[in-house]
Amino acid sequence: MKFIPKEISWLSFNERVLQEAQNKENPLYDRIRFLGIYSNNLDEFYRVRVATLKRLSLLGTKANDILGYKPKATLNKINEIVLKQNYIFTLTYKQILLELKKHHIHILNEYEINDEQKAFIETYFLTQVRPYLIPIMLDEVDKLTNLEDDQVYLAVLIKTQKQKVLHALLNLPTKIIPRFIAVPDKNKSNKYLMFLDDIIRANLMNIFYQFSPEKMEAYTIKITRDAELDIIDNIQENYIDKILKGLQLRKSADPVRFIFDADMPPSMLKLLIKKLNIDKEDTTIPGERYHNFKDLLEFPKFNLPITVPPSPIQHPLINIKEPIIEKVQENDILLHFPYHSFNHFIDLLREASISPLVKSISITLYRLANPSSVVNALINASKNGKNVTAFMEIQARFDEKNNINYANKLTDENVKVFLGVPGFKVHAKICFIEFHKKANLKDIVCISSGNFNGQTARFYTDLMLITTNKKLIKEGKQFFEILKNNFNRQYFLHLLVSPINMRQKIERLIKNEIKNAQKKKPAYIDIKLNNLTDFKIIELLYKAAEAGVKIRINVRAMFSIASLKHKNIEIKAIVDYYLEHSRIFIFCNDDQPKYFIGSADLMPRNLDKRFEVLAPIYDEHIQHQIKAIFECSWNDNVKARVVDYQLSNEIVHKKDNEPTFRSQFEMYNVCKSFYPQNK
What we know:
By secondary structure, this protein is an alpha/beta fold. The chain is built from 19 helices and 27 strands. The chain has three domains: 293 residues, Polyphosphate kinase middle domain (polyphosphate kinase like); 161 residues, Endonuclease, Chain A, CATH 3.30.870; 183 residues, Endonuclease, Chain A.
């Protein structure tokens, strides 16, 4: 096997998340959180990756040419892996329930409550829950085409006193009511919780009383739908209308996964499969009593053991009581989130929004916090007379509505909003601040690996370069000209820009390492990124390894490298408290290293179908910082795994007498070492 299907490698990544839930050395609340992350990840995987494979499988042999592997065989393998992981997930969840009991936290079902608790949940149900429950009587409908995606339902079997059997569906209103409800008990030293599911189960009589039930049973089900948007090309509709229509169609999209309680009677399961129009190609997964464990992300903290990371440190070049604009005129600055505060960037935008010396601000927006300090700063800049331009990507998956709302809000405040580029997603993270010529100040460009999002900046590791380098300023301005003028091609000598020159330049950089290795010169490639699935790039990396180039890759999620017979390729992955999200590229270049950071992974979509930017690092001091950041991650011997074609996810074992090194927390010390006097 030359390449690993990216979907299979993604499941290996999610297994690493599950390993963290299993790891008893992690604080208990962290383990609960990792179960929630695993479940949330898997939901999105089915909505996007599996849905895409199902679509491609309809193309027959053509799909093999597109993917480089067979979609149907991959779907079968996915089902096999997910069933195994579900078994491990269930065991882990049950272990965590036992650990919770040691902390005097008990999760009760409807059969385990006392009279006091029964009275409480009945009152709670009647006043808080029942108003949001509207049953669907299954026997009265032909098809269930509008069940909400990734929403838990209770499939209710009702046997009346007249021996009539009825079937109904009840939604769990978890968008309104918490999934976990605290219930009282006289024993004040203990804490008791119930799933919302079980509160409804205990009160089925208070919903279906009109049928005079003799017996009722309820089983959870969940359906996952295709989340890809079908944007129909209609010149009479504007772009936003097309997106909104696509979002509406998503609600009734084809199912890609159906999960059901394994204890459900076969006759009821058969009825549901018929009503939901589930065919043999869809993935049906027998599960446990509860679904949607992503709700564990909202599990009450109580006083459970939890990782408390240090607070963000102030960047040594920045004094929060002095203008950042002036500091950037003197020195390039590298921000490393979440180790540095995202407020530094917000402060820069705020200064730019009120400074009479600033002429314009241009920015790309992909995923935004809610509320967004970035949007507020842009609106204030517009109110203060600046020329503000925002390139809003409204096809950012699952953020479409949020981005449309922000696009409308910005437009209402006289911000010039561009809604992406037809046929391409604008995934680049770049902000350009232009000064009036009379200001005698250098323009500023910010290039980031992550979204301009203050919420995710607290949990995602990302890098942002803030620079006044003339070369990058010129080409940063050119990049925005491309977006404004509908893909008007420009020549880039310094920035690596997809889909214009990034693929060619990365290939050239790899080939240069191959030539140097063949000439017995120093040759290495260090890469840190989220995903590596581009077959052409991988082929070049194989050739580089064969030529003697030392290759180290730190990858978070998907990777398709299958040929690791060469000792010259090492791949590691880190799953820890933060989500690894930064992208770093370092090429030896005969001991005159070239450094790049930015938004792009090495995937066909990033190189060919999106606007991406990788920025060269010319500041020598920041080059040393980038190198230190990479080495810190590479030396992890606590949370790092060896990534191989067998998908073994073996923990990197520390050597004898080697101290433990947990990179995500050692990184604080690395960032503290970035002092200006070292420049």
